[in-house]
Amino acid sequence: MGREHHSRDRHRRSRSRSRERQEAERSERRSHRRYSRSRSRDRNPSRKHMKEKKEKKRDKKHHKHSKKTKEADELLEMEAMRKLVKENADDMLLPMDFGSVGYGGERDPRDKAFSTAFGMTGMSSSTTGFVAERHKPDTKVRPPKRGDKPGPQDWVCPKCQTINFKQATDCFKCGRLRGSANSGFFQTPSA
């Protein structure tokens, strides 16, 4: 019994080997056929034309894509420029409450006249957005802090209605001289 069993196993093994060989040979034949067919197709002039046509189409598609990305890049760049311009324009404007300087927030009388003339009554000067020329204040004399009480010798500039210290020879806001002709400056009343 032992011998019969052993011979059966050998027979099964040889059968499985032959099946594997047959499948390998079949696949080899198939691949050879495919290869030879593809080679003959390459030689066909209509196939060459199709290949060239596909390449042209691919190039055209690539060109369109690169054009779209170029346009998108330009749009991004324009958006960045707009943002920079907006930020810089905001820096050029004065703080919107440029009339409130000094102790009690004196306002330029021209603001009210201007806003009334253009129908902006009821609006604060911060919403009307007046723009004036900026210039550096006199660094020798510091402007008065809010809450400081005016001294007996402090003076008010008639041009911009700003309270200045007594030792200042010109207005720290507009630069007008204290003793200039037709200045019309006056001393603040002593309290």
Overview features:
3% strand, single chain, mainly alpha, zinc-finger, 191 residues, RanBP2-type domain-containing protein, 3-stranded antiparallel sheet, elongated
> Helix- and strand-based class?
mainly alpha
- How many angstroms separate the termini? 136 Å
Find the count of extended strands (DSSP E, 2+ residues).
3
Radius of gyration: 46 Å
**Fraction in beta strands:** under 5%
Give structural notes.
This protein is mostly helical. The protein has 2 domains: 23-92; 96-191, no CATH class. It contains 4 helices and 3 strands, in the order ααααβββ. It has a 3-stranded antiparallel beta sheet with strand order 2-1-3, with no helix packed on it. The longest helix has 48 residues, at 45-92. It is elongated. The N and C termini lie far apart (136 Å). 7% of the residues are buried.
